[in-house]
Amino acid sequence: MPSLTNKKILLGVTGGIAAYKSAVLLRALQSAGADVRVVMTQAAQAFVTPLTFQALSGHAVYTELLDPTQEAAMDHISLARWADLVLVAPATADFMARAASGHANDLLTTICLATASPIALAPAMNQQMWFNQATQDNLRRLTQRGYYCWGPDEGAQACGETGPGRMIEPEMLLQQVETFFCPGELDGVNILMTAGSTREPIDPVRFVGNRSSGKMGFALAASLHDLGAAVTLISGPVSLSNPIGILCSRVETADEMRSVVLEHVENSDIFIGVAAVADYRPRKYTGEKIKKNNEIQTLELVRNPDILAEVAAREKPPFTVGFAAETEQVEHYAEEKRRIKGLDMIAANQVGMDEGGFESDSNALVLLWQDGREVLPMMTKTQLAQQLAGRIAERYHART
Ligand code: CTP
Fold this sequence. Notes:
Blueprint: E1 8-13, H1 19-31, E2 35-40, H2 50-57, H3 68-73, H4 76-82, E3 85-91, H5 93-100, H6 107-114, E4 119-123, H7 127-131, H8 133-144, E5 148-149, E6 153-156, E7 162-166, H9 170-181, E8 190-195, E9 200-203, E10 206-208, H10 215-226, E11 230-235, E12 247-250, H11 254-265, E13 270-273, E14 280-282, E15 301-303, H12 307-312, E16 319-326, H13 330-341, E17 345-350, E18 362-369, E19 372-380, H14 381-399
Parallel strand pairs: 1-2, 1-3, 3-4, 4-5, 8-11, 8-13, 11-12, 13-16, 16-17
Antiparallel strand pairs: 6-7, 9-10, 14-15, 17-18, 18-19
Helix pairs in contact: 1-2, 1-9, 4-6, 5-8, 10-14
């Protein structure tokens, strides 16, 4: 039986260029068995015509709040009651602002007020608009009221800029909807994670660090949260905002990261070390800025504690997952790491290539566990995170 059989989805389309992708989304939802009705805002109709959605869905498209003929077919209250899920995709900054303020000045916002069903947003806008404090405040207000927020994705935008703000792809949105209707693979599971890099200070202005962006860890945290897990994320300094619904703690050094991990690990069912923790730190911190007095300058480094190994070596360890970034013999070195550190699973990737790795938006992974392996091919980090979260859930349940 298709995954969304008998599910009634009201697809709200607002005025962004991503509106054309909503036609693909509509088809995907229908193919999965959902019964879909479409509501379009006026601005959405500047991008795609209602006829497109009507032809694809086989139903009239709702556009007006106070149109007697439309209201006679199914009025806004009936539509609000009919839906099992209201999915607004794309959700523009303007729509989010109006919904956050409780406006009822068009059909879609009115339905959002009148429905007792869950509402999910797939935001789509220019990255600067997404980062704008007003949008972030609106988002917080909406999620506090129980709205779900799926995306946005990062990457090249229609406006020529690059960053977060792209609507997540229709097939990923379909996955979100499917997960939403059969949730809870990780319901009640506590997950502790590290992400980003650490900075080991040399003097007040310099540090030893690495190129980890934190993207993979943050995306994974969000995907695990989507599966129902309670996620605590300990992150080094990265320029990413805290994923919604996740308890975040920011640290700077490996020592700080270790302390915060140890504070939380007792209650954790799963520990995932995604952080690129600096293996070494300067033996001594110089209180004043070091001057360039010498032709050759030596920096003495000492080993940092291995947080992941320490967690895995506990008397009653959580299900422990590590990451390995390798430039060669990826599987061989990763499996060795998994065995030596006593991990339940390791996710290995090749770094130092053109595509994938630390600062890239996409990546590929090889997953290794006691008696199995799986390759997750090159895809965006958001997609990869969703797949990886599913595999971690699977292996965790298999062990427990
Ligand atoms: N890790 C950790 N604490 C450290 C170092 C690493 O928790 N001090 C974790 C990372 O979060 C990651 C895994 O261990 O999950 C990486 O293992 P590591 O042996 O550090 O990999 P590399 O740094 O790639 O090792 P090497 O440089 O020896 O190849």
